[in-house]
Amino acid sequence: MNLKIIQLEEMHLNDCFDLDQKSLKGLWTKDQWQRELTDPKRICLGTIDIETKKLLGLCSAWLVTDELHITSIAVHPIHKRKGIGKVLISDLIKRAKALSTKHIILEVKDRNEEAKSFYKSMGFKIVGHRSNFYKDGSDALILTKGLFKK
């Protein structure tokens, strides 16, 4: 499988929404995805299969002064554990450094062991907790990754 990272745009709206439904069980509405794809302060990256042009993974983040806040990361269920998430986060880290971002922050469900392990492998550290953060009432852990040594 040959993969390519692309900047997602409004023309990818349906693909982003479909992947959200399959991988994240409808985290965002189509209107939320449209805002995500059109706001210049947001970075939306996608991993596509070069041959089929299918969107296999995506991540989005908000640029807030010197911080990049990852708001969503999804990989198509049949393509999980193939390194797609790692490629996306690695590319996002590279872009964040180019923008002189000091650190990256994200929330993850406190019971999502697979995601916690993934983020730990990418150098993220748990720095906090948000109670009742998700729609289903579950709590979130706050993770961060510094980008420049002090």
Folded structure, characterized:
InterPro entries: AcTrfase_RimI/Ard1 (IPR006464), Acyl_CoA_acyltransferase (IPR016181), GNAT_dom (IPR000182), YpeA/RimI_acetyltransf (IPR050680). This is [Ribosomal protein bS18]-alanine N-acetyltransferase. It catalyses: N-terminal L-alanyl-[ribosomal protein bS18] + acetyl-CoA = N-terminal N(alpha)-acetyl-L-alanyl-[ribosomal protein bS18] + CoA + H(+). It contains 4 helices and 7 strands. The chain has 150 residues and is an alpha+beta fold. It has a domain at 3-106: Gcn5-related N-acetyltransferase (GNAT) (Aminopeptidase), CATH 3.40.630. α1 (13-24) crosses α2. The longest helix is centred in the middle third of the chain and has 15 residues, at 84-98.
Cα shape: globular
Q: CA-to-CA gap between the ends? A: 39 Å
Which class of secondary structure composition applies to the elements? alpha+beta
CATH class identity of the domain at 3-106:
Alpha Beta
**Beta strands, count:** 7
Stretches where pLDDT is under 50 for at least 5 consecutive residues are none
| CATH architecture tag of the domain at 3-106 | 3-Layer(aba) Sandwich
Helix content: 25-40%
Topology at a glance:
Layout: E1 3-7, H1 13-24, H2 30-38, E2 42-49, E3 55-64, E4 67-75, H3 84-98, E5 103-109, H4 113-121, E6 125-130, E7 140-146
Parallel strand pairs: 4-5
Antiparallel strand pairs: 1-2, 2-3, 3-4, 5-7, 6-7
Helix pairs in contact: 1-2
List the keywords:
150 residues; alpha+beta; Aminopeptidase; seven-stranded mixed beta sheet; 4 helices; acyltransferase
